[in-house]
Amino acid sequence: MQESKIAKDAKMANVLKSVRSILIYAAGLSFFVNLLMLTGPLYMLQIYDRVLSSRSYETLTVLTGLILVLFAAMALIDFTRSALLARAGTAFENNLKSLAFDSAMDVARTGSSKKSNHQSVEEPLKDLRQVRQFMSGPGLTAVFDAPWTPFFIGVIFLMHPLLGWVALAGLFILLALVLLNQNTTQQTNRNAQTKVNEADALALATLKNAAATDAMGMRSALKNRWLTLGSDASNSSLISNDRISGFTATTKAVRLFLQSAILGTGAYLAIQGIVTPGVMIAASIIAGRALAPVEIVTSQWRNFSLAGFAYQRLCSRIGDINESPVRTSLPAPTGALTVSHLFCQPHGAKKPIIKDVSFSLEAGEVLGIIGPTAAGKTTLARALVGVEHVTSGEVRLDGADITQWDKNELGTYLGFLPQEVELFSGTAAANIARFTDQACDEEIIAAAKAAGAHEMILNFENGYDTEIGDQGKHLSAGQRQRLALARALFGNPTFVVLDEPNANLDSMGDAALANAIHGLKMRKATTIIIAHRPAAIAGADKLLLLSDGMVQSLGSRDEILQQLAPKKVTPYRGTNISGVQI
After folding, report:
1. Rounded to whole angstroms, how far apart are CA atoms 211 and 220?
2. Which pLDDT belongs to residue 577?
C-alpha cells in the first residue's frame, strides 16, 4: 500500500515538473505585483503629508506621473502572471491528457469502478479540465498573493504597532472563518458533486438509448428519475452555495469593518498627534490589500474544493495506470495460438467467468465457439484479444504471450469484431481504416471486398466518404455489422476473433460472412468465431463447446456436431443443438 502511494506520488511529481518552472516565474512576478500594490497607499500618504501641506503643484505632478508609470508596470506584470498561470494550466492538462484518456478507456473497457458505483467513464477527463480551469482562475492567483499578507501586516506595524495589532486581529478572525468554511462545506461539496455525476450519468445513458426508451414508454419514468436526481443535486448544490455565500459575505463584512476599524484607530492616533492623516488613510488601504487574498479564497472555496477532489481522483486514477514499457518489436505472427489454463474474472465479478480453458490452433485454422447464454463466450473472446482481465493462465500468439506485445503493434496483426458493434463518428472509409493516417484507398477497398461490403458501401449516399454518424447511427444494424467486419479484416490480420458476426445479418450478409471466413482460411489467418447461429460456423475446422466458463467438448466440427445431434428435440434447423445455442 505504501509503495503504491509512493509510486503514485512520484508519477504526479514528474508531471508537475513540467509546470514547476512556469509556476516559479509566476510566483516571482507576484513579488513585483504585491510590491507595486503599495503604490496607491504611498501616493495617498504623500498627498496628505506633503502635497496638501506644501501646496506644491510640481510635487503633485511628479508623484502623479510616477504612479502612472508604476500602475502601468503593475498592469503589465499582472497580465503576464495571469498569462503564465493560464499556460501552466494548459501545460498540466497537456501532460496528463494521454494518461487521463487511457484511464477513461480502462474504465470504459473493463467497467471497473473502485471509488463509486456511479463513476463516470469520462470522469478523468472532467477532473483534468477542472484542475486546469482552477489553475487559470483567480483562486491560484490568491494563493500566490496570500504569502504577502504578513508583509503588508508588517508594513502596517511600521506605521504604528497599534494599527498592526488591529490588522493582525482581523487576519486571525478571517483565517478562523476560512477554517470553519472548510470544515462545514467540504463534505457538502463532495456530496453535491457526486449527485451531479449521478444525474449526468443517467441523462447520458438515456440519450444513448433514446430509441428503446421511447419505444417501450420509458421516457417518463427515466425523466422523473433524472428530475429526482437533478433535484437532489440542485438541493445539495444550493446548500453548499448558501454556506459558502454566507461565509463570503461574513468575510467581506469583517474585512470592511477591519478597514474602518484601522481608519478609526488611525484617526484616534492622528488626533493625539502620534501619526499623520496620511498614515491613517494608507494603513486602511494596505489592510484591505493584506486581507483581500483571504476573502478571495473564501469566495472561491467551492472551486478550491472541487479542484482538490479532482486532483485527488487524478492522482489515484493515473497512479493506477501501469504504463506499458517499451517492447521489443516481435516478428509478424503467423497466427499459431495457444491458450493454457486460462482464468478470467472481469472487474466487478464475484467469481471467475472463464475457468481453466485450454486449447491450441495451428496457423490458418478456424475455431467455432458455441455454448448456452452466459457461458462466458464473449469474456473468452475479449481475453483472447487482450482486453479482458486475466487472473491466471496465458494466451500465446506464435509462442509469445500477448502481454509481451506492444498493444498498438499487436493491433495491426489482429482483427476483432465485438458482440456490440462499436463504430465512430467519421466516414465509412475512416472507420474501416481504423482511423490510421497511413491507410491507402486500395487497402480500405480490399478490406471492404474481403468482408463483402464493397457493393453495400457504394450504395451509400457518398460511398466510402459517407459520414456514418456517432456509433454509426445513420446505418442499419446489419450495415454496421458488415462495416465492422471490414474494419476487422483491414490490413490482412493473421489472427481474427469474431463475436456474433451474423447477429444482425440477412441471408445476403450471411453469404458475405461465409465468403469472408473462406477468404481468411485461404490466406492462413487463424480465426475464432463465436456464434449462436450455425451459418457462421459452417466453415469451422474445430468446435469448442463452452458451458459455465469451462470447456465441455473440443474437437473437429463434424465430431462435435455428431455428439450433439442424438440429443436434438427437433430436426436441426439452425437455431440450437440439444438446447445449446450456437
Report:
1. 14
2. 43
Residue 204: predicted pLDDT: 72
Note the pLDDT of residue 447. 92
Which H or E run contains 556? strand 550-556
Cell numbers 510616477: residue:
66
Lookup: cell for 528? 475464432
pLDDT at 108: 65
> Per-residue pLDDT tens for 248-268?
788 888 888 888 888 888 888
Q: Which of helix, strand or coil describes residue 110?
A: helix
SS3 percent helix, strand, coil of the chain, rounded to 5, is: 65, 10, 25
Strands (E), 164-301: none
User: Do 499 and 380 contact (CB within 8 A), yes or no?
Assistant: no
Q: Which three cell numbers stand for residue 574?
A: 439452425
Domains and CATH numbers, the chain: 2-319 (1.20.1560.10), 337-581 (3.40.50.300)
- Look at the block and give the residue holding cell 469593518: 257
pTM over 0.70: no
In DSSP notation, 373-433 reads: TTSSHHHHHHHHTT-S-EEEEEEEETTEEGGGS-HHHHHHTEEEE-SS----SSBHHHHHT
Query: Are 375 and 546 contacting, i.e. CB atoms less than 8 angstroms apart?
Result: yes
Residues of the chain with pLDDT under 70: 1-15, 18, 107-121, 186, 209-212, 214-215, 318-327, 565-582
Burial class (CB in 10 A: 0-12, 13-18, 19+), 437: exposed
Please, how many CA atoms are within 13 Å of residue 239, restricted to the half-sphere of its CB?
A: 15
Q: State how far the Cα of 453 lies from the Cα of 535, in Å rounded to an integer.
A: 18
E strand or H helix that includes residue 216: none
